[in-house]
Amino acid sequence: MKKLLFIVFAVAGITNLATAQQAKVSPTMDPLPTKAESAKATQTKSAASGMTTAPVASTKQAKPATNNTAAYKKAGLTDTEISGINQSMVELDKKKAEIENNSKLTPEQKKNGVEAVQAERNAVLRKSMGDVKYKTFTIQQAQSQGKAKPAKAVKG
User: I need a labelling partner for 52 at 20 to 30 A (CA). Which of 17, 70, 106, 138 fits?
Assistant: First the structure.
């Protein structure tokens, strides 16, 4: 009797395994697309959106001005002053990015726009810091940029 039950359970288990491996496909399911169909769909999508696969000129990514927190602290600013300045700098960075990425502007218009944003940035810093702290900050920035970019040796 035990042998008979063992055989029945074994046959039932094997039958369950065999049927589980067969994929039950719903009539509403679509088969997976082939590689050629996927490539064609991707090409169609990019053409529809007006994008091409041609290389696009990359825009320069300037370092965000909010990375100057340590320099602000060295200049003697408090944490609340620094957070206010950082918020202003984020807004100015957005303006600068909009100008740099605007394809309707000529290179000279972009240059003038970026210079205007930089002048606004300096005005915000001077107003927020005060003259003494602003002077300390600009001296520190000049020194750190001097260390980062060594002068070229003159061949004689």
Answer: 106
